[in-house]
Write a structure and sequence with these properties.
Length: about 260
């Protein structure tokens, strides 16, 4: 289902081999755009791109590497002729109580989830400028809007992504580059599968809508922000979380 018009647009999506990134890639193609999926998962990434046909490509890309970033964005322009959008989606989510989190693990999570986003935006700026503007969508998290237990490195990185998005929005508006953050709540993907969440109404009482999200629901927000329909939207933080960060329901508070 095409929810927005992305015809003519070329978008790079990191961590697009599976999960939210793969759903976003599908939505870009459904909207008439073309997409370069990047990931460290080579077989899954190639398979995801192949399913999308000629409007998609895959390239192995580690978001912590400056050289990989340069190669990925140049490849997108070489294959498709331009760059209009960047979705910084790649991320890892594992965590510990703050007092048990190792410094090494904290650094690793921040390196991928936050430094990777910084390098991506920085590398994309000249190409987006040359394009006359564009849209950067950074996938933060509901954990970037609240203090969530067991997410020392992850939560800190997602708050960082939220802040970096604001800075990008303010600095890059003059170049016609919009920068926004999306904050998914609990969504069914390979990342959250180990938590044991189930799809379906009533299965997630912590969220006012009472259920976890599906990747297509996050993708719909991403492609809106990529599209010209969001032409006056920059520096925004869009929660797509079933109301989880809005507050607590009576049912949740009282258990009835
Ligand atoms: N699923 C959720 O409930 C949820 C909620 C909030 C935010 N998010 C965020 O959404 C994004 C996508 O998560 P997902 O749920 O689809 O998880 P996922 O694990 O299915 O997908 C993440 C992808 O990122 C890739 N990746 C990891 N390290 C990388 C690196 N160094 N370079 C390139 N790619 C790398 C992985 O290989 C994987 O394909 C993440 O940033 C995550 O933090 C997810």
């Amino acid at each position: 289902m095409a929810v927005v018009d992305l015809s003519g647009k070329v978008v790079v999506i990191t961590g697009g081999a599976r999960g939210l990134g793969a759903a976003a890639a599908q939505a870009v193609v459904d909207g008439g755009g073309r997409v370069l999926i990047t990931d460290v998962l080579e077989a899954e990434g190639a398979e995801t791109a192949a399913k999308l046909g000629d409007a998609a490509r895959f390239l192995r890309h580690d978001v912590t590497s400056e050289a990989d970033w340069q190669a990925a964005l140049e490849y997108a322009v070489a294959e498709f002729g331009r760059l209009d959008g960047l979705v910084n989606n790649a991320g890892i989510s594992t965590g510990q109580f703050l007092e048990h989190e190792s410094v090494e693990h904290f650094r690793r999570v921040v390196e991928i989830n936050l430094v990777g986003v910084f390098i991506g935006i920085k590398t994309a700026i000249p190409l987006l400028r040359a394009n006359g503007g564009g849209s950067v969508v950074n996938i933060s998290s509901a954990a970037g809007l609240t203090g969530l237990a067991l997410t020392a490195g992850y939560g800190a990185s997602k708050w960082g992504v939220r802040g970096l998005s604001k800075i990008g929005a303010v600095e890059l508006a003059e170049a016609g580059i919009r920068v926004n953050s999306v904050h998914p709540g609990m969504t069914l993907t390979p990342m959250t599968a180990p938590v044991g969440i189930q799809a379906g109404e009533g299965n997630y009482p912590g969220a006012p809508l009472g259920r976890v999200g599906v990747p297509e629901e996050i993708a719909a927000a991403v492609v809106f922000l990529l599209s010209d329909a969001a032409g006056y939207v920059t520096g925004a933080e869009l929660a797509v979380d079933g109301g989880w960060t809005a507050g607590l329901t009576v049912k949740y508070l009282t258990g009835q």
